[in-house]
Automatic annotation (TrEMBL):
It comes from Quercus lobata (Valley oak). Residues 160-195 form the Adenylate kinase active site lid domain. It catalyses: AMP + ATP = 2 ADP. GO terms for molecular function: AMP kinase activity; ATP binding. Belongs to the adenylate kinase family. This is adenylate kinase. The gene is LOC115963322. Keywords: Kinase, Nucleotide-binding, Transferase.
């Protein structure tokens, strides 16, 4: 069915792309399966590390927000249900989100395992995720806890300034523009994202601690949590992640 259509089109794929994909799959076939959860407050560096982990271990990256939007757009049965809930202004139920994760795990790109980001946010969600994986004879291997002191996060996030037209980002302390407040290339003014203010960060951190610390405790009891020193520079955090996962 679909495979016939796909193979007919393979002749249109440049050889170089085919070769690199074949080499990638050969490299991947020897990698151990890994099912990972990334937990950490905003600004803790999950977004920097997850693509590195994804490529290194040939995992699929499951960002639940994006997956929900994709399921809604594709009008999958679960997507239709999710849209009904959203249209009513309700939260999408945990069972629905777990169902959408379950669906995503059928994809070839998830064969070697996954990185879950932004889920589970509550202990109930963690339990439902575990039940779903158990039915597949699988389980979460590691929970990477990107631990950073709130004060460091405040400095990281409230120091971020963006050049809206190009997306170039600066940091007053770590990567300042040549002239304060203006873009290096165009000389246009920089702006700060609404989410990047101290007040917004404070409420996001409060919510994070309240909801998520119990999730870390839940997985700690299973002895699968690795606490990372996420305040370190990104390269050092990458090295730490690789040590934990080797």
């Amino acid at each position: 069915m679909a495979t016939g259509a796909a193979s007919a089109n393979l002749e249109d794929v440049p050889s170089l792309d085919l070769m690199s994909e074949l080499l990638r799959r050969m490299k991947c076939s020897s990698k151990p399966d890994k099912r990972l959860i990334l937990i950490g407050p905003p600004g803790s560096g999950k977004g920097t590390q997850s693509p590195i982990i994804k490529d290194e271990y040939c995992l699929c990256h499951l960002a639940t927000g994006d997956m929900l939007r994709a399921a809604v757009a594709a009008k999958t049965p679960l997507g239709v249900k999710a849209k009904e809930a959203m249209d009513k202004g309700e939260l999408v139920s945990d069972d629905l989100v777990v169902g959408i994760i379950d669906e995503a795990l059928q994809k070839p790109s998830c064969q070697k395992g996954f990185i879950l980001d932004g889920f589970p946010r509550t202990v109930v969600q963690a339990q439902k995720l575990d039940e779903m994986l158990e039915k597949k004879g699988a389980k979460v291997d590691k929970v990477l806890n990107f631990a950073v002191d709130d004060l460091i996060l405040e400095e990281r996030i409230t120091g971020r300034w963006i050049h809206p037209a190009s997306g170039r980002s600066y940091h007053t302390k770590f990567a300042p523009p040549k002239v304060p407040g203006v873009d290096d290339v165009t000389g246009e003014p920089l702006i700060q994202r609404k989410d990047d203010t101290a007040a917004v960060l404070k409420s996001r951190l409060e919510a994070f601690h309240k909801q998520t610390e119990p999730v870390i405790d839940y997985y700690s009891k299973k002895s699968i949590v690795a606490n990372l020193h996420a305040e370190k520079p990104p390269k050092e955090v990458t090295a730490e992640v690789q040590k934990v996962l080797s």
